[in-house]
Amino acid sequence: MASVLTSTDLSSLNELVEAANGRCRGAVDQLLPVVYDELRRMAADYLRGERMDHTLDATALVHEAYMKLVNQRTIGWNDRKQFFAVASKVMRRVLV
Questions:
Q1: Mean pLDDT for each 10-residue chunk of the chain (96 residues)?
Q2: Cβ-contact 69, 91 below 8 angstroms
Q3: What's the predicted TM-score (pTM) here?
């Protein structure tokens, strides 16, 4: 069951993404548990379009993409929408 985020949750998520963008280590560490369900849903959607014997499952794709996201020299996300857009692009690149 997908979680529903309230406007307060969305505001907190935006703040967390902005703090992570500023390379606040604590914010980066807190970000994955907050965004994991949505990233996992996105990964599962992408994998439905892939071949059946793909070496990655949704969990592995999320982890690969997340590591690439947080290990960038410059993080370019200013809010949750931009974070998920960049995450989406990174997942597609991992699959390619």
A1: 48 76 71 85 88 84 86 72 88 89
A2: no
A3: 0.73
Handedness of CA 51, 56, 57, 59 (dihedral sign): negative
Query: Is 81 in contact with 14 (CB distance < 8 Å)?
Result: no
Greatest Cα pair distance, the chain, in angstroms, is: 41
**What pLDDT score was predicted for residue 41?**
92
Map 2-29 to HEC letters: CCCCCHHHHHHHHHHHHHHHCCCHHHHH
| Cα torsion through 43, 47, 48, 51, rounded to 10 | 180
Q: Distance from CA of residue 2 to its chain's centroid?
A: 15
